[in-house]
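User: Please work through this fold.
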Amino acid sequence: AVDLHAGQIQGFFDIPTDNLFAAPVMAADIQTRYGSQELMVVSPDVGGVVRARSLAKRLNNAPLAIVDKRRDRPGQSEVMNIIGDVKGRMCILIDDIIDSGGTLCNAAQALMDAGAAGVSAYISHGVLSGGAVARVSNSALKELVITDTIMPTEATTLSDRIRVLTIAPLIGEAVRRIADESSVSSLFD
């Protein structure tokens, strides 16, 4: 499996299961594209802080920010507070899944409003249902990078704001290590 939404999901399988992480592939891509810029890794919610911290460590201990979403009353629109100083920094949002894209696009706008130099997002699983591709294309996001764990739709591949990053070499190496009975976890050290 790749980037399980919760690690506990591994316990539901009756066979040995490895949870592979896309973070090393994403980190290499981020360093290639944005390495010379002042980076800030951002979790779009409190629940993704561990994932964001892991990516930040891979990016030379880049600073970390969190988007804190709150609703004062049910049915009221979310208020997004940024925890961390993003002013003048290239912000990298990291999450495991994007479906409608609403939360991610709102987070990108909140970061830009807080003075970020730019915002890109790296997401493991690009579901992108409904109007998500259009939402991303019209958002404050400079770029959305998804992996190929889910086959991208034609609309996704035609968007100039969405890029697909392959994790085939990561999966291939994991399969090789399993066949050779060597460590898969050392892929993520």
Helices lie at 23-34, 49-58, 102-113, 132-137, 154-158, 168-179. The beta strands are 39-43, 64-70, 79-83, 90-98, 118-126, 143-147, 162-165.
